[in-house]
Amino acid sequence: AKVIGINFSATVTLEVREWPTGIPDYFHFDDDVYEGQSRQERAKLERKRSLARYHFPRPFATSSLPKKDISMQSVENDDGEFRLYQGVWRMTPLPG
User: Fold this and answer.
1) In 3-state terms, what secondary structure has residue 37?
2) b/e for 58-77, b at 16 or more Cβ within 10 A?
3) 9, 12, 52, 64: which could form a disulfide with 80 (CB 3.0–4.6 Å)?
4) Is 63 helix (H, G, I), strand (E, B) or coil?
5) What is the pLDDT of residues 2-55, one digit of tens each?
6) Across the chain, how many H-helices and E-strands are there?
7) Which of 43, 30, 22 is nearest to 92 (CA)?
8) Which residue has the higher pLDDT, 62 or 46?
9) Using CA atoms, how far apart are residues 44 and 62, in angstroms rounded to an integer?
10) What is the pTM of this model?
11) DSSP string covering 17-70, please?
């Protein structure tokens, strides 16, 4: 990829996992209120949290629609350029 006129490339090996019914809501992202904090308050705190293995980013959108997720993170002690990479692809059907 070319970024600001500079050619950039990196390698990483990913651990990928499919979640046919979505990632389990271990962190209560779907709850309006959890432990006295609103979803909005928790989202602000989540932005400041350091990356940690197996604690995937908060979903950008939550809804009652069925969902399927694919999580990915860099393999621990990989010889690539990333110390830790994480991501989630969320798929939901289009209503209508």
Assistant:
1) strand
2) bbeeeeeeebebebebbeee
3) 12
4) coil
5) 888 888 888 889 999 999 988 877 666 667 787 788 878 877 887 787 888 888
6) 1, 7
7) 22
8) 46
9) 16
10) 0.69
11) EEETT----TT-TT-SEETTEEHHHHHHHHHHSPPBTTBPPPPS---SS--EEE
